[in-house]
Specification:
3 strands; 3-stranded antiparallel β-sheet; 22% strand; alpha+beta; single chain
Length: 144
Protein backbone atom coordinates (compact mmCIF):
# COMPACT_ATOMS: atom_id res chain seq x y z
CA UNK A 1 0.00 0.00 0.00
CA UNK A 2 2.79 2.38 0.86
CA UNK A 3 4.49 1.57 -2.46
CA UNK A 4 1.30 2.50 -4.38
CA UNK A 5 1.23 5.91 -2.65
CA UNK A 6 4.85 6.60 -3.61
CA UNK A 7 4.14 5.71 -7.25
CA UNK A 8 1.02 7.92 -7.31
CA UNK A 9 2.96 10.82 -5.79
CA UNK A 10 5.72 10.40 -8.39
CA UNK A 11 3.13 10.38 -11.19
CA UNK A 12 1.52 13.52 -9.71
CA UNK A 13 4.87 15.30 -9.50
CA UNK A 14 5.69 14.33 -13.11
CA UNK A 15 2.29 15.54 -14.31
CA UNK A 16 2.78 18.82 -12.46
CA UNK A 17 6.29 19.20 -13.91
CA UNK A 18 4.99 18.53 -17.44
CA UNK A 19 2.29 21.15 -16.95
CA UNK A 20 4.76 23.76 -15.71
CA UNK A 21 7.12 23.08 -18.63
CA UNK A 22 4.21 23.34 -21.10
CA UNK A 23 3.11 26.67 -19.66
CA UNK A 24 6.70 28.00 -19.81
CA UNK A 25 7.05 26.97 -23.45
CA UNK A 26 3.78 28.68 -24.33
CA UNK A 27 4.79 31.87 -22.47
CA UNK A 28 8.20 32.00 -24.15
CA UNK A 29 6.52 31.57 -27.54
CA UNK A 30 4.06 34.38 -26.79
CA UNK A 31 6.80 36.74 -25.62
CA UNK A 32 8.82 36.06 -28.77
CA UNK A 33 5.77 36.56 -31.03
CA UNK A 34 4.69 39.78 -29.31
CA UNK A 35 8.21 41.23 -29.43
CA UNK A 36 8.45 40.50 -33.19
CA UNK A 37 5.09 42.21 -33.74
CA UNK A 38 6.23 45.23 -31.71
CA UNK A 39 9.37 45.57 -33.88
CA UNK A 40 7.29 45.46 -37.07
CA UNK A 41 4.80 47.99 -35.73
CA UNK A 42 7.70 50.23 -34.63
CA UNK A 43 9.25 50.16 -38.12
CA UNK A 44 5.91 50.84 -39.75
CA UNK A 45 5.17 53.78 -37.47
CA UNK A 46 8.65 55.26 -38.02
CA UNK A 47 8.34 55.00 -41.82
CA UNK A 48 4.85 56.52 -41.78
CA UNK A 49 6.06 59.35 -39.55
CA UNK A 50 9.02 60.08 -41.85
CA UNK A 51 6.80 60.09 -44.94
CA UNK A 52 4.35 62.45 -43.26
CA UNK A 53 7.18 64.80 -42.12
CA UNK A 54 8.62 64.95 -45.64
CA UNK A 55 5.23 65.57 -47.23
CA UNK A 56 4.46 68.25 -44.62
CA UNK A 57 7.73 69.98 -45.55
CA UNK A 58 6.79 69.85 -49.23
CA UNK A 59 3.39 71.26 -48.35
CA UNK A 60 4.86 74.20 -46.39
CA UNK A 61 7.92 74.99 -48.52
CA UNK A 62 7.08 77.01 -51.65
CA UNK A 63 10.26 75.96 -53.46
CA UNK A 64 9.43 72.29 -52.97
CA UNK A 65 5.82 72.94 -54.03
CA UNK A 66 7.16 74.55 -57.21
CA UNK A 67 9.30 71.46 -57.87
CA UNK A 68 6.14 69.34 -57.67
CA UNK A 69 4.17 71.76 -59.84
CA UNK A 70 6.91 71.81 -62.50
CA UNK A 71 7.63 68.07 -62.10
CA UNK A 72 11.28 68.96 -61.41
CA UNK A 73 12.30 65.44 -60.41
CA UNK A 74 16.02 66.15 -59.99
CA UNK A 75 15.73 69.08 -57.59
CA UNK A 76 12.89 67.49 -55.65
CA UNK A 77 14.84 64.24 -55.34
CA UNK A 78 17.90 66.10 -53.99
CA UNK A 79 15.77 68.06 -51.52
CA UNK A 80 13.96 64.97 -50.20
CA UNK A 81 17.25 63.04 -49.99
CA UNK A 82 18.90 65.74 -47.86
CA UNK A 83 15.81 66.01 -45.65
CA UNK A 84 15.66 62.24 -45.18
CA UNK A 85 19.37 62.09 -44.33
CA UNK A 86 18.78 64.65 -41.58
CA UNK A 87 15.76 62.79 -40.20
CA UNK A 88 16.84 59.16 -40.51
CA UNK A 89 19.63 57.96 -42.82
CA UNK A 90 18.56 54.30 -42.60
CA UNK A 91 15.60 54.87 -44.93
CA UNK A 92 15.48 55.18 -48.69
CA UNK A 93 12.70 56.50 -50.91
CA UNK A 94 11.33 57.11 -54.34
CA UNK A 95 8.36 59.13 -55.50
CA UNK A 96 6.22 59.93 -58.47
CA UNK A 97 4.37 63.05 -59.53
CA UNK A 98 1.22 62.75 -61.57
CA UNK A 99 -2.12 64.29 -62.34
CA UNK A 100 -4.64 63.65 -59.59
CA UNK A 101 -6.74 61.20 -61.63
CA UNK A 102 -3.79 59.06 -62.72
CA UNK A 103 -2.26 56.16 -60.81
CA UNK A 104 1.43 56.32 -59.95
CA UNK A 105 3.24 53.22 -61.09
CA UNK A 106 6.81 52.82 -59.90
CA UNK A 107 9.02 50.15 -61.41
CA UNK A 108 12.07 48.88 -59.59
CA UNK A 109 10.85 49.10 -56.02
CA UNK A 110 12.92 46.85 -53.76
CA UNK A 111 11.60 43.36 -53.27
CA UNK A 112 11.34 41.69 -49.87
CA UNK A 113 11.11 45.06 -48.10
CA UNK A 114 8.22 46.66 -46.29
CA UNK A 115 7.39 49.69 -48.42
CA UNK A 116 5.16 52.43 -47.08
CA UNK A 117 3.44 55.03 -49.23
CA UNK A 118 1.79 58.35 -48.55
CA UNK A 119 0.59 61.07 -50.87
CA UNK A 120 0.01 64.80 -51.03
CA UNK A 121 -2.04 66.93 -53.38
CA UNK A 122 -0.60 70.28 -54.47
CA UNK A 123 -3.03 72.80 -55.97
CA UNK A 124 -1.93 75.90 -57.86
CA UNK A 125 -3.17 78.43 -60.39
CA UNK A 126 -1.84 77.69 -63.86
CA UNK A 127 -0.30 80.99 -65.02
CA UNK A 128 -1.09 80.26 -68.67
CA UNK A 129 -4.72 79.23 -68.37
CA UNK A 130 -5.62 80.89 -65.07
CA UNK A 131 -7.28 77.66 -63.94
CA UNK A 132 -6.83 75.81 -60.67
CA UNK A 133 -4.82 72.64 -61.24
CA UNK A 134 -3.76 69.87 -58.89
CA UNK A 135 -0.81 67.50 -58.94
CA UNK A 136 -0.26 64.49 -56.77
CA UNK A 137 3.03 63.36 -55.27
CA UNK A 138 3.22 59.82 -53.92
CA UNK A 139 6.19 59.09 -51.65
CA UNK A 140 7.39 55.51 -51.16
CA UNK A 141 9.72 54.87 -48.22
CA UNK A 142 11.49 51.77 -46.86
CA UNK A 143 14.34 50.79 -44.57
CA UNK A 144 17.61 50.25 -46.45
Amino acid sequence: MCGDMVIKKKKGVLTLLESVISVLIILIGLVFFVSQQAKTIGKEEKAKELARLILNEIEKNQTLRDYVRDADIGNLNSSIKSLLLQLSPIYDFTFCISEIALTCIIHGLPEKKDIFADSLLISYINQTTGKLETKKIVLYIWAK
